[in-house]
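Example record

One chain of 102 residues, shown exactly as stored in the release files.
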Amino acid sequence: MAANSAKTAKRGRGRPFEKGQSGNPSGRPKKPPELRELADKSLDEIKNIVETTQNEKIKADLCKWLYEMQYGKATQRQEVDGTLDGGAIAVRLEGELAEWAK
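Predicted structure tokens for this chain:
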């Protein structure tokens, strides 16, 4: 039993790292430069598709996807009144999300 309690004390229960010590001292690994080149080429191709396509749905979907990749998905607020009458639940979209839904 003494060996087990010594292990527990050594580990520091709930504190895996010493105070002020990083859990990842080397930081996040760098991305290879080839990845950036590929991303730039892909964005150029997507831009070309948006500029040349006649299909408005494809244009809108690509623009939405690019926006979400750059800025993240728009948050949406949902109001729930708590009544369940067996009917459909209506969700009101506001802000940029409402604009995208049009």
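Notes: The mean pLDDT is 74.
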